[in-house]
Design a protein that fits this description.
Blueprint: E1 7-9, H1 15-26, H2 36-44, E2 48-53, E3 61-67, E4 71-79, H3 88-102, E5 107-113, H4 117-125, E6 129-138, E7 142-150, E8 152-154, E9 159-161
Parallel strand pairs: 4-5
Antiparallel strand pairs: 1-2, 2-3, 3-4, 5-7, 6-7, 8-9
This protein binds coenzyme A (COA).
Length: 162
């Protein structure tokens, strides 16, 4: 069963596995920016959460979110190929969003490859909307779409979580 009890902050020993998933699932064909060293920097960064889901074996998935004053930026999110469409991506995203809400952050932003229809469908289904297309965002070779989700709704009498 997919439960957020299996989600925790990554350890430094997870950096290589996270980096390999980014290379294979997200950065494929673009080069490899999220090297183990960069992932390790994020794990150690006090304004970034690197969340992982595990179940005793290899990582089931991970997400990296950096928290600013008003906006949190989702850098990466990926689920092991054999574990997709079982709610792992949703559970990781909700965990990271909840942390942002607890810090009174207003919105989450992210960029996805324009060609990544699967990711775009996933984020739309999770309440994100596309705000702009960024030409040549990935090394001049591929466009990105920017997506955003507001974490709060103003009811007139106060803010409630989205
Ligand atoms: C995008 C990704 C993280 C989604 O993770 P996941 O665990 O499979 O997603 P979930 O099971 O939580 O899916 C939630 C909803 O998203 C949508 N969705 C997920 N995969 C989809 C697909 N292949 N096609 C269409 N919609 C999809 C559906 O609405 C789904 O709900 P449903 O299964 O009840 O229909 C995963 O597919 C992945 O790792 N992809 C490769 C890496 C990547 O592209 N990351 C995003 C860019 S940073």
């Amino acid at each position: 069963m997919i439960t957020d009890h299996n989600i925790a902050l990554a350890r430094s020993t997870d950096a290589s596995a996270i980096s390999a998933m980014s290379r294979d699932y997200i950065e494929r064909g673009l080069g490899w920016d999220w090297t183990p060293t960069r992932v390790l920097r994020s794990i150690r960064d006090r304004s970034t959460n690197v969340a992982v889901m595990r179940d005793g074996g290899p990582l089931l998935g991970f997400g990296i979110m950096k928290y600013g004053d008003d906006t949190a930026h989702l850098h990466l999110l990926a689920v092991h190929r054999s574990m997709r469409r079982k709610g792992v991506g949703t559970a990781l995203l909700l965990w990271l969003e909840q942390t942002a809400r607890a810090a009174a952050i207003e919105r989450v932003r992210l960029e996805a490859r324009a060609s990544n229809d699967l990711a775009r469908a996933f984020y739309r289904s999770r309440g994100y909307h596309e705000t702009e297309r960024l030409s040549g965002y990935y090394r001049g070779a591929e466009d990105a779409v920017r997506l955003e989700k507001l974490l709060w709704t103003d009811t007139g009498t106060g803010l409630v979580p989205e």
